[in-house]
Amino acid sequence: MPTTSLGTVVAENAIRFLGHDTHQHDEPHLVYVVTGNARLLADGEEWRLGRHEALWLAPRVPHALRIDAGGMALGPFLDPADQPRCRVQPLGVVPALTEVMTTALGAAPATPEQVAPFRQALGRVLRGISRHYFPVVLPVHPAVRALAREALRTPSMTLEQLAERHRMSARQVQRVFLDETGLPFTRWRNRARMNAAVEHLRGGGELTAAARAAGYATRAGLLRALSRESGVPVSALSTDAVGALGG
User: Fold this and answer.
1) What's phi and psi for 12, nearest 5 deg?
2) Locate the HTH araC/xylS-type domain: which residues (predicted)?
3) Is 192 helix (H, G, I), strand (E, B) or coil?
4) Pairing, β 53-57 against β 29-35
């Protein structure tokens, strides 16, 4: 996909560029949609990405990308130290990331010296947003791990519905979550969703967009959830959520 180590595409091919077949890289990297929509297959799962959405891949993750006609995506490589928390980490729309990528697209760096400052800027943004505010870990049990990932992509599905899809009982799932994460399923999912919202806020997003990115129907719903879990008053979160949560 990339024609430079930053991952830009040749200008004359940009609009016609439709993606690439399954491959992998030795470095961590991003898949960032500049415009249009894209479908990414990574580690056997499908991810739908819209305009300005990004996904962070660990090294050696097999993936294939397809971009809708008229769309464009970039695939910048990252420094080896800038590793995602998991093999495939969806980021959604992160305004600070969009700013770096838009600047890089305009500058069109072509040499390692020109690429370096953009790669460093991407690393700073990613490290700043990727720290979990609320500690959560994925279950180890393969079926429950798959269920957990689906639970984050489909926040409207109940535990019973998810368990049925994965041919387990809700009681089995609850037991595995308690044993392997220390949290009941509902609290685990709420924490994980709030972490996604905090990531968005750390990246420069505002509360309404952060709520939408994390699957909350309203800004007020996100504020109440953050307040319950963190103990920080809603009034403080409304004024400066990132500052109230300790940066």
Assistant:
1) -70, -15
2) 142-240
3) helix
4) antiparallel
**Distance (Å, whole) CA 245 – CA 237:** 8
The distance of Cα 139 from the centroid of its chain, to the nearest Å, equals: 19
Burial level of 152, CB count in 10 A (0-12/13-18/19+)? middle
Q: Comparing 44 with 10, which gets the higher pLDDT?
A: 44
Please give the C-alpha separations between residue 30 and each of 65, 98, 110, 167, 170, in angstroms, as whole numbers: 12, 12, 18, 34, 35
Residue type at 142 in one-letter notation? P
CA atoms within 13 A on the CB side of 238: 8
What CA–CA distance (Å, rounded) separates 108 from 52?
18
Higher pLDDT, 206 or 128: 206
Q: Which two tokens stand for residue 15?
A: 């609009």
Residue 237: closest CA among 212, 213, 206: 206
What are the tens digits of pLDDT across the range 26-70? Answer: 999 999 999 999 999 998 888 889 999 899 999 999 999 999 988
Q: Which amino acid is at 107?
A: A
d(CA 48, CA 217): 20
d(CA 40, CA 61): 12
Please name the helix (run of DSSP H) or strand (run of DSSP E) that holds residue 242, with its range, or none: helix 241-244
Candidates 95, 97, 103; CA nearest to 30 is 97
Under the banding of pLDDT at 50, 70 and 90, the label for residue 22 is: confident
**DSSP reduced 3-state for 226:** helix
